[in-house]
Design brief:
Length: 63
């Protein structure tokens, strides 16, 4: 049996707390493909490493 990589998954609520945004914003990022996520049943889990990358990513110029 293959070993699973040591990945920690966070709930949408945990991601929202870390990023200091609403849960709806996290869902929008997931559905837009800007934040990778895995679906478990009816809920999503986001790899902790993906959250760290998203927080460090430069903000795009809106206008």
């Amino acid at each position: 049996m293959a070993e699973l990589p040591d990945v920690r998954f966070l709930t949408v609520a945990e991601v929202a707390d870390l990023m200091r945004v609403s849960k709806m914003t996290v869902y929008r990022l997931v559905h837009a493909g800007e934040l990778p996520a895995v679906r478990f049943g009816r809920s999503y889990r986001v790899p902790e490493s993906a959250v760290a990358e998203a927080v460090q990513r430069p903000v795009s110029d809106v206008g």
